[in-house]
Amino acid sequence: MAGVKPASRTAPSHAALSPATASAVIAALAPLELRLTRHRRAVLAVLEASDRPLTAEEVVQRSGVPMSTAYRNLAELVDAGVIVRVSGVGGGDRHELAEQFSQHHHHHLVCVDCGIVTDFDASAQLEKLIAREVDTLLASSGFQVTHHVFDVRGRCVSCQAGA
């Protein structure tokens, strides 16, 4: 039918990358001679707007960026330290903004059945305990900690209900 556009395969997100994050990302990419392209901006906007780490497929669906382009950009942004890969179960990796770009230190609940990864904020008491234990553990090794990752693995409410 003339004049009729085919339906889009994806529904692009209307999320916009915040100016502060865009500026920080531009500065991080510049030494690597990478630019904040339209597709990278769309991928990052989706991750910035999400309340949990996303699979590559979820990024594609929410951003409207073509699959191969999204995968390439996710890999480049991981290599640049702008986003981090969160290990799921069975190779179900997810992605989120690195903490220095999101300004949100958090940890993850990882469902060992469905692979969903949910963010959670640890109490100040738990963060102090983790820091103290890591410092004690590494005191004699000379190892310098840049950050820590604390993932709790178990079964989500949905998977428990389906059992």
Polypeptide structure, described:
The chain has 2 domains: about 90 residues, Winged helix-like DNA-binding domain superfamily/Winged helix DNA-binding domain (Arc Repressor Mutant, subunit A, Orthogonal Bundle), CATH 1.10.10; about 60 residues, Ferric-uptake regulator, C-terminal dimerisarion domain (Dna Ligase, domain 1, 2-Layer Sandwich). Strand 3 and strand 4 form a beta hairpin. The protein is an alpha+beta fold and about 160 residues long. The N terminus is likely disordered. The protein is built from 7 helices and 5 strands; from the N terminus they run H-H-H-H-E-E-H-E-E-H-E-H. The strands form 2 sheets. It has a 3-stranded mixed sheet with strand order 4-3-5, with no helix packed on it. The radius of gyration is 18 Å and the shape is globular. Helix 2 crosses helix 3 and helix 3 crosses helix 4. About 40% of the residues lie in helices and about 15% in strands.
Q: What are the secondary-structure elements, in order, as H or E? A: HHHHEEHEEHEH
Tell me the distance between the termini: 49 Å
CATH homologous superfamily title of the largest domain:
Winged helix-like DNA-binding domain superfamily/Winged helix DNA-binding domain
CATH level-1 class of the largest domain: Mainly Alpha
**Outline type:** globular
**Secondary-structure-derived class:** alpha+beta
Low-pLDDT ranges: 1-11
Helix content: 40-55%
Largest sheet: 3 strands, mixed
Total helices: the number is: 7
Quick check: average pLDDT?
A: 86
- At the third CATH level, what is the topology name of the largest domain? Arc Repressor Mutant, subunit A
Task: Kindly provide the radius of gyration, computed on alpha-carbon positions and rounded to a whole number of angstroms.
Answer: 18 Å
Strand order of the largest sheet: 4-3-5
Q: What count of domains describes the coordinates?
A: 2
The CATH architecture of the largest domain is Orthogonal Bundle
Strand content: 5-15%
